[in-house]
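Inputs:
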Amino acid sequence: MRYVVLTFAFVVVATISILGFRGSKSTKPPIEIFNDMDHQPKYMPQGKSAFFADGRADRPVPAHAVARGSFLEDDHLAFGKDSKGEFARGFPMDVTQELLERGKDRYAIFCVVCHGESGDGNGITKKYGMLSTPSYTRADLLTMPEGEIFNTITNGKNTMGRYGDKLTVEDRWAIVAYLKVLQRAQLGTIEDVPADKRSELGL
Ligand code: HEC
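Outputs:
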């Protein structure tokens, strides 16, 4: 009988202590058994500081500070724009064999799946329903300023995603250069081949 009473009392106390105070509010800090780095010598955002003369923990941005990523002063290089804010024609760097090789390499990784190896728009994704991928020989793309193509790669266009966060500025320009190679490869004529080399083509 004694055990029954004791067990009953224990259950009552346990139930009340576990459930009884749920929902009741307290302004006191919680009991901390392990304080898990809750208290650190640090400033909270918009907090006060006795150290700085203006009393603020937040420091104002120093003069001439440049936001990360906006260090490129050349708008042509950074955004494909000219000084009037229009899409620029041409490249902001020398188009070298090395740049083209780099462009080919990146193109194979980032663009081939949709645009296809020759740039005809028939990459593997067409089979899976990505029907709107254009060929680079679409008339308007032939005359489009290089800066606008650069912008498409950077920010994407309609159903095409953006690659600005996946490819460096230089790599994006390298791809634009390679894209021009693909266009030329499709539309080249015998006139593009130096006269003394034409016989080598066996034409
Ligand atoms: C996931 C598929 C996919 C990938 C990957 C992709 N594209 Fe596209 N791209 C598209 C589609 C779809 C369109 C058509 C967008 C539209 O509806 O205007 C397009 C359009 C374009 C256009 C034409 C934009 C215009 O002005 O009409 C260019 C240029 C282009 N892509 C270049 C690239 C380059 C360079 C890469 C690699 C960095 C790339 N794309 C990667 C699907 C893709």
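Remarks. Residues 75-189 form a domain with the Cytochrome Bc1 Complex; Chain D, domain 2 fold (CATH 1.10.760.10). The pocket of heme C is lined by residues 110-111, 113-115, 125, 130, 132-134, 141, 149, 152-153, 157-160, 163, 175, 179 (CB under 6 Å).
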